Amino acid sequence: xxxxxxxxxxxxxxxxxxxxxxxxxxxxxxxxxxxxxxxxxxxxxxxxxxxxxxxxxxxxxxxxxxxxxxxxxxxxxxxxxxxxxxxxxxxxxxxxxxxxxxxxxxxxxxxxxxxxxxxxxxxxxxxxxxxxxxxxxxxxxxxxxxxxxxxxxxxxxxxxxxxxxxxxxxxxxxxxxxxxxxxxxxxxxxxxxxxxxxxxxxxxxxxxxxxxxxxxxxxxxxxxxxxxxxxxxxxxxxxxxxxxxxxxxxxxxxxxxxxxxxxxxxxxxxxxxxxxxxxxxxxxxxxxxxxxxxxxxxxxxxxxxxxxxxxxxxxxxxxxxxxxxxxxxxxxxxxxxxxxxxxxxxxxxxxxxxxxxxxxxxxxxxxxxxxxxxxxxxxxxxxxxxxxxxxxxxxxxxxxxxxxxxxxxxxxxxxxxxxxxxxxxxxxxxxxxxxxxxxxxxxxxxxxxxxxxxxxxxxxxxxxxxxxxxxxxxxxxxxxxxxxxxxxxxxxxxxxxxxxxxxxxxxxxxxxxxxxxxxxxxxxxxxxxxxxxxxxxxxxxxxxxxxxxxxxxxxxxxxxxxxxxxxxxxxxxxxxxxxxxxxxxxxxxxxxxxxxxxxxxxxxxx
Length: 606
Hints:
The protein is mainly alpha-helical and about 600 residues long. It has a single domain (about 145-580), classed as Up-down Bundle (Cytochrome C Oxidase, Chain A), CATH 1.20.210.10. It contains 19 helices and 2 strands. Strands 1-2 form a two-stranded parallel ribbon. The longest helix has about 50 residues, at about 35-80. The protein is globular, with a radius of gyration of 29 Å.
């Protein structure tokens, strides 16, 4: 045993010596594995954007050709009207002779018997009206859900839409203050007070409300039963909105829990959100417990786990114990990263496992990959919060564990991304038909790129280079916006038209998609480049003010990208109003939510 321990120590000693080297220079920084990996990931996003543009241009060209064909038909009709009677008689006579002609039957074949010796032919037909491959058309159906469930989903998403526009308006205002700091001098509009208003509003008001609202439909649908208590759902709606309203008033008044990012709301206010989470968890759990089918669908695993983890997280984050000195730093890293990964990311992935296959009318590619992604997410994500404090006074071994587990996150990320992309396989034509699949595709790509970039950034050199710079702001928007927001929008456009029977204009949905995507890309690229220059400036020990002035042009591009994102959110709000404003009575209805004792089967993807 002693010899084994000695051998392990000898093998690990070079790694430990290298790992604890704190001499950092900017020499050959571009050759760092984390930097190279990040550049490759950003290239993937660019390629996907180009492919989506190609598909949409192809669809536009097809529509243009169809329009030209219709114009030619119209022109031909007008030509016929202009013909004289004698000319028409000559054309009809020629046509009559053509109709009397018949084929012999041997023009394209022979009397030789057809034999398929190698078994290559799978299907033969001589009926031109029965093609070998029938392309699925988009079905315009209104799902027959209970009025209570429809109302819950609409009101949750309505509140989420309001908080999205409000929260990102605050964010755009703050972005302008970077290059126009003297635009106002009112205390409650200062950057220090409004920045947490922006983050907490989009966290708890927009993302959380949208997730729970979409989750209510998933829980009912995949359990094939009614929601356990609609009263609990309304209590949760009131409490979450009350949390955001009171929390923002307190923040703008200078009353905050100043110890940590994303937990600026004081505990008497945040406890309302915790109560809402507990009520939602009970409601979801009871609904799943009284399901009328045997299996628990993978979406419910993710959703219930997200609620359970976040209740625990809220308690730990706000307990007064261990909230002093470095203990508070450890808790802050745990709370901040677990909030993003175990609440927003885990819950949203649960939604994707339902809405993606449902929108494509096909099963999820692999249930086993979903289970692998779930359990590895539970394993690795809980230990990576400390990678925000590399080179801090925290124990070196704790930092190393966070880095190792950050690399372990590639397992659930690759499993989940593979599952989503393989589910989309064979359905790429949907990109040219609607924007539901493009939203899902961008979300899936950013899930891989944003999560992978976070793992690369956990490396010691890249952490030293990028952390505490504007690069970290770009990373947070890659994840919370590129992944969570795009997945939520995809789910919204997949289900809301079916709940109300009202489709939004595709031109507005397209404007929402492109303004959000291009805005996000310009936002994150500008901050990534500027953040890298700022980090290099710090490493070279140049004056701090130099790192501030060099960011000026990048902050302008940040505001430009933020403006496009805000406009996309306003367009999204308009689309929401269009969808819920009226419900046509002649839209076909498809059954969905059932009573407790019904044996109605679900879609084939459960």
